[in-house]
């Protein structure tokens, strides 16, 4: 139904909002800092208002490639799908947090300039300590569940059941949030598809 491969340049061009403290090269879109913690770094419209019925059975599949040098420091970006009011998605965790947390966590909350989120539990934690830089996220918007796969420990998979259901009739957006205001977030690519199930 909808498929897009976003290079850093295409991601920046498609955004209706992008935080101005960024640098862009053909290889990576880097956010250098934010005005506050949990700040929304960008919004990319995916499906316009009124195109999809509110009861449509939609599955979002997203593969995200992140800059590994930032992932060895402080870099915990969140990738979420919103209907302009609420979001569901995943928080990706940097290597520094692996001793106490899973490499990705399900999150949900109201869409806004800053994020107020409900976060899934931090365990289980991985046994490996390298940062893979690739996260595969799948979200079932109608059934309210999501998974995140990371190539750690022979394949680390995480599932979450979301409390809220999005309304696709309001339109769908990709939103990216930072975590700590002083973190650096580096995005190499996002491959995103939205499928409608029968």
Q: Which helices and strands appear, and what pairs or packs with what?
A:
Layout: E1 2-6, H1 8-14, E2 17-18, E3 22-24, E4 29-31, E5 40-47, E6 57-66, H2 68-71, E7 78-82, E8 86-92, E9 104-110, E10 118-119, E11 134-140, E12 145-150, E13 156-161, E14 172-177, E15 185-197
Antiparallel strand pairs: 1-15, 2-5, 3-4, 4-15, 5-14, 6-11, 6-15, 7-8, 7-14, 8-9, 9-10, 11-12, 12-13
What does this structure look like?
This protein has 198 residues and is mostly beta strands. The protein has one domain: Jelly Rolls. Helix content is 6%, strand content 45%. The protein contains two helices and 15 strands. The strands form two sheets. Strands 1, 3, 4, 6, 11, 12, 13 and 15 form an eight-stranded antiparallel sheet that branches. A seven-stranded antiparallel sheet has the order 2-5-14-7-8-9-10, with helices on one face. A hairpin with a 7-residue loop joins strand 9 and strand 10. It starts with a strand and ends with a strand.
């Amino acid at each position: 139904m909808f498929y897009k491969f976003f290079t850093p340049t295409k991601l920046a061009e498609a955004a209706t909002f992008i935080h101005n403290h960024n640098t862009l090269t053909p290889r990576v879109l880097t956010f250098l800092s934010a005005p506050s913690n949990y700040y929304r770094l960008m919004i990319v419209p995916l499906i316009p208002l009124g195109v999809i019925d509110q009861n449509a059975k939609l599955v979002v599949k997203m593969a995200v490639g992140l800059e590994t040098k930032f992932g060895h420091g402080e870099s915990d970006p969140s990738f979420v799908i919103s209907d302009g009011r609420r979001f569901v998605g995943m928080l990706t965790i940097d290597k520094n947090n692996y001793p106490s947390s899973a490499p990705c966590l399900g999150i949900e909350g109201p869409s806004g300039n800053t994020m107020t989120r409900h976060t899934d539990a931090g365990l289980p934690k991985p046994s490996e300590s390298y940062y893979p830089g690739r996260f595969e996220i799948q979200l079932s918007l109608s059934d309210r569940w999501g998974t995140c796969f990371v190539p750690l420990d022979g394949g680390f998979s995480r599932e979450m059941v979301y409390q809220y259901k999005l309304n696709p009739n309001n339109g769908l957006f990709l939103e990216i949030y930072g975590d700590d205001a002083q973190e650096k977030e580096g995005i190499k690519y996002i491959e995103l598809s939205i499928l409608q199930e029968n």
